[in-house]
């Protein structure tokens, strides 16, 4: 899920279509960071079992 969100946030940059404002891209990346932190905590919980 996080990879899909990251691809969506960075898609316009990869193809040279920078019609999004930089603030919009940064906001999307911050949302992705939250998902990544949740995934990391879930993996840590599984590892401890």
How are the elements arranged and paired?
Layout (H helix, E strand, L loop, with lengths): L1 H13 L7 H27 L1
Helix pairs in contact: 1-2
In short:
With 49 residues, the protein is mainly α. The chain has helices at residues 2-14, 22-48.
Average pLDDT confidence is 77
Q: How many structural domains can be distinguished in the coordinates?
A: 1
Topology as H/E string?
HH
Main β-sheet description: none
Describe the structure in your own words.
This protein has helices at residues 2-14, 22-48. It is mainly α. It has one domain (2-48). Helix 1 packs antiparallel against helix 2. The longest helix is centred in the C-terminal third of the chain and has 27 residues, at 22-48. The chain is elongated, with a radius of gyration of 14 Å. The two termini are 24 Å apart. The mean pLDDT is 77.
Feature tags:
single chain; 49 residues; mainly alpha
């Amino acid at each position: 899920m996080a990879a899909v969100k990251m691809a969506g946030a960075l898609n316009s940059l990869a193809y040279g279509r920078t019609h999004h404002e930089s603030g919009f891209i940064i906001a999307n990346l911050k949302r992705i960071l939250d998902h990544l932190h949740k995934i990391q905590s879930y993996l840590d919980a599984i590892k401890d079992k």
